[in-house]
Amino acid sequence: MRLEYHPAVANELEKIRDYYEQKSNGLGDRFVDELEQQIFLIAAMPSRWQIVRGDVRRALMRRFPYVIYFRNLEVGTIRVTVVKHMKRHPAFGVSRK
Fold it and tell me: 59 vs 21, 23, 24, 39, 51, CA distance in Å?
């Protein structure tokens, strides 16, 4: 499975990791670890996750209040389009390609 990331995702993840790291030493790394585990689950079974709109699906993180939006572009390619806090507007990032 090939994974791609929208260019804005790197900046979003850096801000989220820094926020959690300021709250507690090592918490930012635990966030990244859980995110990576969730991405591996997405890559293993992309059709398992709920469709939000069109071809956009979402996966909820377990320990952190974040949701991962992704698209199954073609056979064997997943593109993560946004990682956002659950309190953000539901439409935020859904239109990203």
Answer: 23, 24, 25, 9, 9
